[in-house]
TrEMBL record:
The lineage of its organism: Bacteria, Bacillati, Bacillota, Bacilli, Bacillales. Belongs to the glycosyl hydrolase 39 family. It comes from Listeria swaminathanii. SMART domains: HTH_ARAC. SUPFAM superfamilies: (Trans)glycosidases (SSF51445), Glycosyl hydrolase domain (SSF51011), Homeodomain-like (SSF46689). Residues 165-263 form the HTH araC/xylS-type domain. This is Helix-turn-helix domain-containing protein. Keywords: DNA-binding, Glycosidase, Hydrolase, Transcription, Transcription regulation. It comes from the Bacteria.
Length: 780
C-alpha cells in the first residue's frame, strides 16, 4: 500500500477480525466476498460493489469471509481540509447499500474514481501522478457535493466558522507538538480570554479539552496497533509525560492505557508480545492483478462516459398523499393542425398523424384555407351525363383516411377566406357539406368543428364580422345541427379586454358553441432587452391569460367551452440558439396547468408545415410542433405523451410535481422548470446553475413490493438536438444518420424492484427543464 501524505490506498484481504481507526475520511470498496464492519452498535454488511464511507477518527472492527477483497482508501484530514475549508464542519458517513434510490450514478462514479486512483497509484510512472490526482479530486467532489451531511462529525456543536476551522485544522496537524491557547490567540489577533470563550461557544469544548481529545484518539491507535511502550506513546502524541497521559486516559475511559490495551487484546485473543506479528496476519496486502482490474471495470460499467455530476441546488421535498383531497384527472380534446386538408395525402404526414393518435391521443385534425387553398381541384366543363372528375377528389381521399383512423376535422374558416366572394364561398361550403354527408355519412360529419377566425388587428367592421359569422352558423346548423361552430376571440391579457371590432360576439353568445383563443408567452417579452427579468415577467403567461379570459367571459355571463388552439411556452427566437434550449418541463407544466381550465389544446404537426403556413404570424414563436423536419419527435410530443400516461386520481400536486393513485399503484412526475432567455442556453455554465438535486420523501404510501419504472427526459436523454449536433458534419447528414437520430432520441427508461414503506424516500438529479416520470407498480 503506498503511503502518501494526501492519502493511502490499496487492495486488502481481511484474514482475521481486526480493529482499526480511520485517521481521515475512509472509503471501503468491496471487490468480492463478504465483509462485516462494526461501529459501536452498528453493523454494515458489504458485498461485491458496496461502498462504505467512514467519518474521520472512527473506531471500527472489520472481518470477512475466505474470498473477500476490498479497496481501502483513507484521505488525510490535512489534505481534505486544505481543499475543502468546511471539512471539519461536516460528516461523510455513507453506505451505498442503504442509500435512497437515485444515488446510483453517484455510487457508480465513486466506484470508477476509486478504481482509477488505485490503478494510477500502483503504477510508478510519472504521468500517472496526474491521473491519480485527478481521480482523487473527483472523489473529493463526489463526497462534498452529494454525500456530506449537514451535521457535525461528532456530538459536539460545530458551526461554519472559518476562524475556528483554521484552528481545528492546525490542531489536527500539530497535535503531537507543544500547543497553547496563547499561540493561537496571537495568530488570530484575539485575547486569550476571548478566544477561550469563543472556542467553547463554537465547539462545545474548551481549547485544552479539544486538544486532549485529538491526542487521545491518536494515542489509542498506537495502543492497539503498535508494541511501543506507554511512555513512548505518551510522548509521541503530545503528552508531557507517561503519568499525565495515564491520568487523562483514565479520566476519559475509566481504564489505564495498559488496562485498555490488555482488555482489547483479550477480545481478539491477542497478546502484546505477538501483536505486531498477528496484525500482519490479519490483513494481507494484495497487488492489483489483471483479474482484479477486469473485475473492477465490471463494477462501474454503468457509469456513462462524459456524464458529469454537477453540483446543483439541493432541495428536500415531502409529498404526503394522505393530506390531499383527491381530484380526477381532466381529459381534453387535442387538435393537430396540418395546414391544408391535402397535406393528409402525404405519406410522412399520415405516419405522423397515426403516431400522434396512437401514442398521445390526438383526436382532431386542424385544417385551414378549405376553399382559398389548393385542396379542391378546379371544376372543369364536360358534356358527360355523369362527370368522371370531381373537385373533391383529393378531399375525399384525405377524409377517407381520417374516417378510417377515427379522426375528426377542426376547420378554421377565416374572414379573409370569405372576403370578396361571400356568396360563392358559402355556396361551396353548403355543397361540400352535402357532398360529405352523401359520401361519408351524417355521423362522421356531425362531429366536426368550425372556427370563425380573424386576428386582433383587423380592418373589418364589427357589424361585418358579426354578419358573416351568423351566416356561417346558419348554413352549417341547417344541415348539421350537431356540428360545433365557434369564434376566435383575440383577448388581450395586458388590457384585460377584447378589441372593439371583435366585441360583437358578446351579443350573440347563444349562437356560439365554443370560444377559441391563442396564448403565447412571448407576447409578454420585450426582445430588445436581454436581461433575465424581462423573461421572468412572462412566467405562467398561458395560464394567466386563460384565467383572465374565463373571468372576462363570466363577467359577461358567457359560459362556453374554451379551446386554446395555438399556444407556446417561453422560447424566444430559438433560431439563434441552435436548438440548445431544451424546454420539455415548461411544455408539460403549462399543459398540467391548462388541462383543468380548457376543453381543447392545439398543436402543429411538424416544423415543415408550420413554417410553410401563410398565417402571417411569427412562425418561430406562435405554436408548438410535434415533429421536426425529418420526423424527429420534438419535446412537446413526449410532454403530451407523459400527460396522457397519467391515470387515476391526483393525490398530491405542487408547482414542480404531480402524483396520482390508481388501482395498480402510483405515478409521480417531477419537473425542473426554468424560464430563461434562450440565448443563455448556449452557455453551459449558466445552464448548470439551473440544475436541481431533490431528496423526495413520500409519506402515506401503501407499503409493499413495487416495480419502479422511471422515464428521464432532458437534454441528454431524449432531446432531438443533442444527437443532431453530435452527429452533424460539414458534409451534412443522410437518411441513415437521420433515422438513427430519430430512433435513439427518446426518454431513457430504468426499472428497479423496491420494497416501499409508508415513509419512503429517493434522490432525483434534474437537468434544466427535465422531466422525471415514475411509475410505482404494485406486484401483488
Amino acid at each position: 500500500m503506498p503511503h502518501l501524505k494526501d492519502y493511502t490506498i490499496g487492495i486488502q484481504h481481511i484474514k482475521q477480525l481486526t480493529s482499526e481507526i480511520s485517521l481521515g475520511t475512509k472509503l471501503v470498496f468491496a471487490i468480492s466476498g463478504q465483509i462485516t464492519i462494526k461501529l459501536s452498535e452498528q453493523k454494515f454488511y458489504l458485498q461485491e460493489g458496496d461502498i462504505l464511507v467512514l467519518d474521520r477518527n472512527t473506531f471500527y472492527t472489520i472481518e470477512g469471509n475466505e474470498d473477500n477483497l476490498i479497496i481501502d482508501l483513507t484521505i488525510s484530514d490535512t489534505f481534505f481540509a486544505h481543499y475543502y475549508e468546511d471539512y471539519f464542519q461536516h460528516s461523510f458517513k455513507f453506505f451505498s447499500k442503504e442509500s435512497d434510490p437515485g444515488r446510483e450514478r453517484v455510487v457508480g462514479s465513486l466506484r470508477k474514481s476509486v478504481s482509477e486512483l488505485l490503478i494510477a497509484s500502483a503504477t510508478k510512472k510519472r504521468a500517472n501522478k496526474l491521473e491519480a490526482q485527478s481521480a482523487l479530486f473527483q472523489i473529493l467532489l463526489l463526497l462534498t457535493r452529494f454525500l456530506k451531511r449537514g451535521v457535525p462529525s461528532s456530538a459536539r456543536k460545530e458551526v461554519n466558522d472559518k476562524r475556528i476551522s483554521r484552528i481545528i485544522r492546525e490542531v489536527e496537524e500539530r497535535f503531537d507538538e507543544a500547543l497553547s491557547l496563547r499561540e493561537f490567540a496571537q495568530k488570530e489577533f484575539l485575547s486569550e480570554a476571548y478566544l477561550s470563550r469563543y472556542f467553547k461557544k463554537t465547539t462545545g469544548l474548551g481549547f485544552l479539552q479539544y486538544l486532549t481529545e485529538v491526542r487521545l484518539k491518536h494515542a489509542i491507535q498506537d495502543l492497539l496497533h503498535s508494541v511501543e511502550s506507554i511512555t513512548e506513546i505518551a510522548l509521541k502524541n503530545g503528552f508531557s509525560s507517561q503519568k499525565h497521559f495515564s491520568e487523562v486516559f483514565k479520566f476519559h475511559f475509566e481504564l489505564t492505557p495498559s488496562e485498555y490495551r490488555m482488555e482489547h487484546h483479550s477480545e481478539t485473543n491477542l497478546l502484546i508480545e505477538n501483536r505486531a506479528a498477528k496484525l500482519g496476519a490479519s490483513v494481507e496486502q494484495i497487488a492489483p492483478s489483471p483479474e482484479i482490474l477486469v473485475k473492477l471495470a465490471g463494477l462501474y460499467y454503468d457509469v456513462e462516459l462524459g456524464k458529469e455530476l454537477n453540483k446543483a441546488p439541493f432541495e428536500k421535498k415531502k409529498i404526503d398523499i394522505t393530506e390531499k383531497s383527491a381530484r380526477c384527472l381532466s381529459k381534453n380534446m387535442n387538435i393537430l393542425t396540418i395546414g391544408e386538408l391535402k397535406e393528409v395525402l402525404k405519406d410522412n404526414v399520415q405516419k405522423q398523424i397515426i403516431t400522434t393518435r396512437d401514442e398521445i391521443g390526438i383526436n382532431y385534425i386542424g385544417i385551414r384555407h378549405l376553399f382559398r387553398g389548393s385542396t379542391f381541384l378546379p371544376e372543369t366543363e364536360t358534356d358527360e351525363l355523369v362527370p368522371t372528375s370531381s373537385p373533391y377528389a383529393n378531399a375525399d381521399l384525405a377524409l377517407t383516411f381520417l374516417k378510417q383512423q377515427n379522426l375528426q376535422l377542426f376547420i378554421r374558416l377565416e374572414y379573409q377566406d370569405i372576403l370578396g366572394e361571400e356568396e360563392a364561398v358559402f355556396e361551396r361550403l353548403d355543397h361540400f357539406l352535402r357532398h360529405c354527408m352523401q359520401v361519408f355519412g351524417r355521423e362522421f360529419v356531425s362531429k366536426w368543428h368550425f372556427m370563425f377566425y380573424e386576428p386582433k388587428n383587423t380592418y373589418a367592421d364589427k357589424a361585418e364580422l358579426k354578419k358573416l359569422y351568423l351566416k356561417l352558423y346558419q348554413i352549417i346548423k341547417s344541415r348539421f345541427p350537431a356540428i360545433q361552430v365557434g369564434n376566435f376571440v383575440p383577448f388581450s391579457l395586458s388590457k384585460d379586454a377584447v378589441p372593439e371590432r371583435h366585441t360583437w360576439f358578446l351579443e350573440e353568445a347563444d349562437k356560439i358553441d365554443f370560444v377559441a383563443f391563442n396564448a403565447n408567452q412571448n407576447e409578454a417579452v420585450d426582445f430588445s432587452k436581454e436581461d433575465t427579468q424581462s423573461f421572468l415577467v412572462s412566467e405562467d403567461h398561458c395560464l394567466s391569460k386563460t384565467l383572465k379570459l374565463k373571468a372576462f367571459l363570466k363577467h359577461h355571463h358567457i359560459n362556453k367551452p374554451l379551446m386554446l388552439v395555438n399556444w407556446n411556452t417561453l422560447s424566444g427566437n430559438t433560431r439563434y440558439t441552435n436548438g440548445t434550449f431544451f424546454r420539455g418541463a415548461l411544455v408539460l407544466k403549462t399543459m398540467l396547468d391548462l388541462v383543468p381550465e380548457v376543453d381543447a389544446l392545439g398543436f402543429w404537426i411538424n416544423t415543415e408545415l408550420h413554417e410553410g403556413d401563410d398565417s402571417k404570424l411569427n412562425i418561430s414563436l406562435d405554436g408548438i410542433e410535434m415533429f421536426h423536419f425529418f420526423n424527429g419527435k420534438r419535446p412537446a410530443f413526449y410532454a403530451v405523451k407523459f400527460l396522457r400516461r397519467l391515470k387515476g386520481v391526483v393525490v398530491a400536486e405542487g408547482p414542480d410535481f404531480i402524483m396520482t393513485k390508481h388501482v395498480d399503484g402510483y405515478q409521480l412526475i417531477l419537473m425542473n422548470c426554468a424560464t430563461i432567455n434562450p440565448r443563455y442556453s448556449v452557455e453551459e455554465r449558466f445552464t448548470k446553475e439551473e440544475q436541481k438535486e431533490m431528496h423526495i420523501r413520500l409519506t402515506g404510501l401503501e407499503a409493499g413490493e413495487y416495480q419502479v419504472r422511471k422515464w428521464q427526459f432532458d437534454r441528454d436523454n431524449g432531446a432531438l438536438y443533442s444527437k443532431y449536433w453530435q452527429l452533424n458534419s460539414k458534409y451534412g447528414m443522410d437518411k441513415e444518420i437521420l433515422d438513427y437520430i430519430v430512433d435513439v432520441s427518446q426518454p431513457t427508461l430504468t426499472v428497479t424492484d423496491e420494497t416501499i414503506t409508508e415513509d419512503w424516500s429517493f434522490y432525483a438529479y434534474l437537468d434544466i427543464n427535465a422531466i422525471h416520470f415514475y411509475e410505482f407498480r404494485s406486484t401483488i
